[in-house]
Amino acid sequence: MVILVLNCGSSSIKYQVIDMTDQSSNLLAKGLVERIGLPEGDLVHKPIGKEPFALSQPIPDHTTGISLVLQALTDPKHGVIASLDEVKAVGHRVAHGGEFFPESCLVTEEVKEKIRSLFEIAPLHNPANLEGILSIEKVLPGVPQVTVFDTSFHQTIPAVNYLFALPYEYYEKYRVRKYGFHGTSHKYVARIGAEMAGLDLENSKIITCHIGNGASVTAVLNGKSFDTSMGFSPLDGLVMGTRCGSVDASAITFIGEKEGMSYAELNTMMNKKSGVLGLTGISSDMRDIDRAYDEGNSRAILARDMHYGRIKKFVGQYAAEMGGVDMIIFTGGVGENSEEVRQEVCEGLEFMGVKFDTAANKGVRGVNKILSASDSKVKVAIIATNEELVIATDTYNLVK
After folding, report:
1. Once rounded to an integer, what is the mean pLDDT over residues 145-150?
2. Is 375 exposed, middle or buried (0-12, 13-18, 19+ CB in 10 A)?
C-alpha cells in the first residue's frame, strides 16, 4: 500500500512516500516544500535511486504545495509512481490532540472539528496541520486520511504527573494540564532501543531525550509515557533554541509589568526570543553555539552548559520517578548529531550505573548504536528517529 506522509507547518510541507506491507516498509521518496505564501517558494524532491529535483516558484498556499508534490511523484523522469491512483492513503502529523485522541484515527468531520477546537492552545501547529488535511480533500478526493498526534503517546501519563497545582476549576473548564509533545518520536525510539538492548519493552524503564531546536525528555515506563518535560505547550521543560523552558511564572509577570508587555508579547518573548538565542544573542542553532563555545564566548559557554544541564536534571528526575532506569536514548537533530551533548549529559551519572563509552560516541551521527560499555548497568544509545514510519504504520493499519 503506497502511503503519502505529510507534516505541514505554517509555511512548509515535509513529506515521504512509503510502500507499506504487513512485513516491510519501502521508502520511495521524500522531500520538502518551503516558503509557502512568500513571493518565491521552493520544492526539493528526493526520489530513491534517482536524481533529486528542485524548483522555485510562487507557492501561495498548502493546496498548491501539495499539488506540486503530487506532480513530482508522478513525473516520468523523477517520479516514483505511475499515477495518483497508487496513493491509497495519506497520513498526517498533527501536533495537538488534547484529551480527545489517545491514539491515531481516521479523519472524519468530527475529527476535523476537534482539531479546529484546539487552535487556541496550539496556534502555531494545528491550523497548518488541518490545512494539509483540507488540501488533500481537494487534490485527492476520496482517499482515506489518518491523523497521528504528537500528544497521543503521552495520554497514559497519570494525573499526578499531568496536573498543575492550580485551582482545579481551570482544568475542568479549560483542560489546562500537561500534554507533552514529540510523542511519535519518543514512542518509536523507546521501542527500537528496547530491541537493541534486549529489553522487554513492557517491563522496562527507559528515558528518551529528543533534542533538537525544540526538545523534550520522556520517562517511558513499561512501554508507556509516564512523564515528559514539555507541558501545556511545547514551551515547558528544557532550554531550547528560542524557548525558555521551565521558568518561575512570577519572573514573567514581573518582566511584563516592568516592560508594559501584553500577554501576546510575553508569549512571543518566551517562545521566540529566549532559549539559547536569548541567552547568547548569537543564534538559536546549536551548531553556531558550539562554534562560539569553542571560541571562548562566555555567554555561549553559559547557554550550552544550561542546555546540557537541564537535560541531565530531567534524566535524574525521571530515574527517581521510575525507581531506576534501564536505558537512556538520544535522538532528534541535536541528539543524533552532537557527540558533545551525549557525553556531557552522561558524564557524572556513574552513580546510577551509567558507564559511557567515549570512544564509541566519537564522531557518531544519525545512526542506531549502543554508546555504553558492555558491562554498563544502564545502556545508553543513539537512535535515528523515524516519525514518518510511525505515521505510515498507523495509517496502514487503520486503512487496511
Report:
1. 97
2. exposed
Q: CA separation (Å) from 89 to 145, 150, 182?
A: 6, 20, 23
Angle between helices 298-322 and 339-346 (to 10 degrees): 50
The whole-angstrom separation of Cα 291 and Cα 148 is: 37
* Cβ count within 10 A of residue 254: 11
Contacts 24+ apart (CB under 8 A), 286-293: 286/213, 286/241, 286/334, 286/338, 286/341, 290/338, 290/340
If one counts every other C-beta atom within 10 angstroms of the C-beta of residue 278, the result is 18
Determine how β-strand 215-221 pairs with β-strand 105-106: unpaired
- Helix %, strand %, coil % for the chain, to 5? 40, 20, 35
Cell of 372: 555504553
Residue showing cell 498548491: 64
Q: How confident is the model at residue 324 (pLDDT cuts 50, 70, 90)?
A: very high
For the chain, how long is the longest CA-to-CA vector? Answer: 62
pLDDT in tens, 234-257: 899 999 999 999 999 999 999 999
Contact assessment for residue 326 and residue 378, using Cβ atoms and an 8 Å cutoff: yes
Position 117 pLDDT exceeds 80: yes
pLDDT tens digit string along 362-377?
A: 999 999 999 999 999 9
The one catalytic residue in 19, 61, 150, 305 is 150
Provide the Cα torsion 118, 119, 120, 122; round to 10°.
90
Query: 150 an active-site residue?
Result: yes
**Cα torsion through 206, 211, 216, 217, rounded to 10:** 20
Q: Which residues contact 250 (CB under 8 A, 6 or more apart)?
A: none
The helix or strand, by DSSP H or E, that contains position 3, with its residue range, turns out to be: strand 2-8
* Side-chain-side CA neighbours of residue 393 (13 Å): 13
Q: Is the pTM of this model over 0.90?
A: yes
Q: 15-73, pLDDT tens digit by residue?
A: 999 999 999 999 999 999 999 988 999 999 999 999 999 999 999 999 999 999 999 99
DSSP summary character for residue 154 = G
